[in-house]
Amino acid sequence: GWSPDGHDAVYQLLVPLKPPHGHAFHLELGTAGEMPAQSYVRVVTECTCARDQCVEKMLCFVHQPKDPLKRIWNASVLSTLCTDSYLNVQKIAGWFQNMVSSAWKELPQSRRYSMKVLPSRRSCKLQLTNASGRSFLVEIMFGVQQGNSDIFLSSQT
């Protein structure tokens, strides 16, 4: 795309979010009176017993809820990416921005481009600038797939 902000190009990417093992996403539509209309993504635990029979000692989050390691892992995932069991796009964006910033130093492109994470509450915006001063913007948006369709609920309003 083109940007009036002086960037040479703008790239927008959709990153599909997948629930972690033993969890599922459930789309909940907001009330009819909400403007703009809101949708929420609840993160729920799901039974994996039937799918994991071939994996020995794989515990199910639903049927083995007292396992302390699972409780700690489940609480960590939910507190990092969710608010009250719902995906929180601001938490996801912050987590993703931190991960990209940490990983950037290890990539070969970091020697040719400087990267700046731009403020954003609902996506991850990166400004990449080469030695000659030319820059481009990458906006990474997050999405949750609706069933098996090609439709994604996006993190953008």
Automatic annotation (TrEMBL):
GO terms for cellular component: membrane. It comes from the Eukaryota. Signal peptide: none annotated. This is IPIL1 protein. It comes from Jacana jacana (Wattled jacana).
